[in-house]
Write a structure and sequence with these properties.
Glyco_trans_1; Glyco_trans_4-like_N; about 375 residues; 17 helices; 6-stranded parallel sheet; glycosyltransferase; alpha/beta
């Protein structure tokens, strides 16, 4: 379940944007982890522009940067790469001193400050920014608990000012969801088109083997606090069903302790391959996703496998799940309400769930990105 594995599946995402074939192009992203949805989007964008230079702040140690053609900033040679919270105030400077080169077109993949990068004068360089979210650490810390780090309390207002001032040169924005488009309007006072991220629905729709019994609940994602895996465990206990938790992250030890205290079996699948993840989706009764997410690729993957989603009625799930048809959206975080929705999954048609997921396929993303880039760079 890594970006590197997914990257090898996006090479056929679409034809390059022919309009830019004779122009110098750079694509940039924040830090590059081996297990993130935003990294998959960045690689999909880069595959549409194969002649583009690829820049990142730094790549995590388990990422083969050279193989992926990633050029790292000077932050990669400092100790700051080990702490995103400490590196955050320095990121705008890193982007402004990334390289001395000038490009005709820059496409940024931004969830912090990548959209502030300057790789040429605005009169010459066309800058398009695909936004996963305005930096939640500074703009909406209540959405992501990591933004409540006391180290960020003092500089938050300053960083907001810097973020606005250093991004005036961006010519056009695309948002990964209606939720993020609304934040761009609210925080940056700019408009954006909505282009949903690419999901490899074909892979997850392909049968992994004989039809399975669908007798367990599933939670998938990074094991970090705001993903609420502790709540997922509580929901499984309230529903009285076994649970499988797939992913990895710093919360593993705490989650294992929580799992040991409940009365239902909880199995941990650490860093499953894409093939194993497909098996897990296809064998699950439902995916539990009780979290406010900007978009949420995981719920779409689950639906591609015919698996309904039980999630929070907010954020990206309002766009990716049809309440009552491809899953159930619950208005609160109370485990009993989610468990009640689990008991209704027999009302859901797996065929309808799979059909809905196809509207988020990679070909749709490629077509929308090509259209957006062409419109903005004519």
């Amino acid at each position: 379940m890594t970006s590197l594995e997914n990257a090898r599946g996006v090479q056929d995402i679409g034809t390059p944007t022919a309009l830019l074939a004779d122009r110098s192009v750079a694509v940039v992203h924040e830090w590059f982890s081996a297990a993130g949805g935003s990294e998959n989007v960045f690689l999909a964008i880069a595959d549409l522009l194969p002649h583009a230079r690829r820049y990142v702040l730094w790549a995590e140690p388990d990422v083969p940067a050279a193989e992926l053609g990633l050029r790292e900033s000077w932050l990669a040679r400092t100790a700051l790469r080990r702490s995103k919270a400490l590196a955050l105030p320095v990121m705008p400077l890193a982007w402004r001193t990334l390289a001395n080169e000038s490009f005709d077109v820059v496409v940024s993949s931004s969830h912090a400050f990548a959209h502030t990068v300057r790789l040429g004068p605005p009169a010459h360089t066309r800058h398009l920014s695909y936004v996963h979210s305005p930096a939640r650490y500074i703009w909406s810390p209540t959405v992501d608990g990591r933004g409540s780090n006391p180290l960020l309390g003092v500089p938050r207002r300053l960083l907001r000012t810097v973020d606005l001032r250093l991004s005036r040169h961006v010519h056009a924005y695309a948002a990964n969801s209606l939720e993020v488009r609304d934040r761009i309007r609210r925080y940056w006072k700019r408009d954006a088109v909505v282009i949903h991220p690419p999901v490899d629905v074909d892979h997850f729709a392909t049968a992994a083997g004989p039809e399975q019994s669908r007798d367990y609940l599933l939670g998938v994602g990074r094991w970090i606090p705001y993903k609420r895996f502790d709540l997922i465990i509580e929901i499984a206990e309230a529903a009285g069903l076994p649970l499988v938790i797939a992913g990895s992250g710093p919360e593993e030890a705490r989650l294992r302790r929580a799992a040991a205290r409940v009365s239902v079996p909880v199995t941990f699948e650490v860093r499953p391959t894409r093939e194993r993840l497909r098996e897990l989706y296809q064998g699950a009764l439902a995916l539990l996703f009780p979290v406010h997410e900007d978009f949420g690729i995981i719920p779409v993957e689950a639906q591609a496998a015919g698996t309904p989603v039980i999630g929070l009625r907010s954020g990206g799930l309002l766009e990716t799940v049809v309440d009552g048809e491809t899953g159930f959206l619950v208005p609160s975080a109370r485990p009993e309400e989610h468990a009640a929705a689990v008991r209704r999954v027999s009302e859901i048609s797996a065929t309808r769930v799979r059909e809905h997921a196809r509207s988020f396929g990679r070909d749709r993303f490629a077509a929308r990105m090509n259209e957006w880039v062409a419109d903005e760079c004519r």
